[in-house]
Every structure is written in C-alpha cells, then in structure tokens.
Amino acid sequence: MKNLIIISVICLASFSMIACNNTNKSASNSPKDSTGTNSAGTSNPAKSGVDSKTTAAVKEMVGNYLNLKNALAKDNSADAATAGKALSEGFMKFDQSALTPTQKKSFTDIADDAKEMAEHIGMSGGKLPHQREHFDMLSKDMIDFVKLFSAGQGLYVDHCPMYNNNKGADWLSETKEIRNPYLGTKMPTCGSVKEELK
C-alpha cells in the first residue's frame, strides 16, 4: 500500500512537470508584441494604439474582404474580382506611419502575402475555383489582420470542414449565419462558427 502511494505521488508530480513544460513551450513559441502579449490571441493591446486614420483604412479593407466573401458565396466571380482588386489596392496604399515598430512588422508579414492573394483573385474573374484557392490563403491573413488592428465591428471566424478534400478552411463573416464562400450556392450553409472577434 505504501509503495502504491509513493508511485501515485511520483506519477502526479511527473505529469505536473510535463504539463507545465508544455504550457511554457507553447507560450514561448508564440509571437509576442511589445507588451509581451501573444499577438495571435484574441485580445491584443496593439489595437488600443491604433489611430483614427488607421482604423478607417482597416474598416475599408475589411469591408472589401467581406464583399469578396459574399460574392464568392453567391458564385459571383466578377464581383469577387472587383473586391479582390480593391483589397489589394488597400494593402498597397495602407499608411504605416502611425504604427509602432511591432505593428509595422506584423502588418508587413500579413500584407506581403495578403496583397498577392487579393491581386490573384482580382485577375481571375470567371475562375471561381482559382479565386477560392487564393481566398483560403487570404482569409488566414485577414484573420491575423483583424486580430492585429480590430475591425471596429463584431466578426466571426467560420469554418468549412469539406473544402479542399476535407482539409477544411476558415473565413471571416459579419453575420453568425453561415454563407459558405468555398462551396457557394451548392452548399451555402455548410460550416460552423469557430470564434467570435470583437
């Protein structure tokens, strides 16, 4: 009986040490902003330092992204191309002068890829499958973009489990109601809300 108690105590102590080490590893591997807060988290103090000009630009870009998402949900390739071009231009003319060094670095990391994806969508009118491939990658960047600056409105991160041979894909939506941009009018309500961003 005494041996059983000792073994239980050793196992419990080992489990606690492993759990703590894993928590510390994941925390140390996550990118942090200048305040030490995880930049991938839903609450980022960098948002509070955003000026009104930046906020207006972010709102406009998120609006173009949502127009793109809604066009794809309706299988409207031409409107998706128009919104893609507008979003790409938004990334090109985004004024970074009021950003902190940390915000600038994060923005550059996001913008380099997102601008290219939006550009491809803009040049691919009439090619819905191709636009949706780029929208998948663009959405990852836009989720990070909104977490960095905030959108000035409530948004949802939605998930489609069936897209890309059941690998799944996420997107941002302004409504809780699912309108799937990856499967369009074929399966408009396929998906679920994964996260709410404020």
Quick overview of this protein structure:
This protein is mainly alpha-helical. The protein is 59% helix and 9% strand.
Keywords:
single chain, 198 residues, three-stranded antiparallel sheet, 3 strands, disordered N terminus, signal, DUF3347 domain-containing protein, DUF3347
Describe the model:
Residues 24-52 are annotated as: Disordered. InterPro entries: DUF3347. This protein has one domain (49-197): Four Helix Bundle (Hemerythrin (Met), subunit A) (Up-down Bundle). The chain has 6 helices and 3 strands; from the N terminus they run αααααβαββ. The protein has a 3-stranded antiparallel β-sheet. The model is unreliable at 1-48 (pLDDT under 50). It is mainly alpha-helical.
Q: Main sheet, how many strands, which sense, barrel?
A: 3 strands, antiparallel
Q: Spans with pLDDT under 50 lasting ≥5 residues?
A: 1-48
Quote the beta fraction: 5-15%
The ordered string of helix (H) and strand (E) elements is: HHHHHEHEE
Determine the CATH topology: Four Helix Bundle (Hemerythrin (Met), subunit A)
Number of strands: 3
The N- to C-terminal Cα distance equals 54 Å
Strand order of the largest sheet: 2-1-3
> Over all CA atoms, what is the radius of gyration?
21 Å
CATH architecture annotation name: Up-down Bundle
User: Structural class, judged by helices and strands?
Assistant: mainly alpha
How helical, in percent, are the residues? 55-70%
CATH class: Mainly Alpha
InterPro entries: DUF3347
Region (Disordered): 24-52
Keywords: Signal
Signal peptide: 1-19
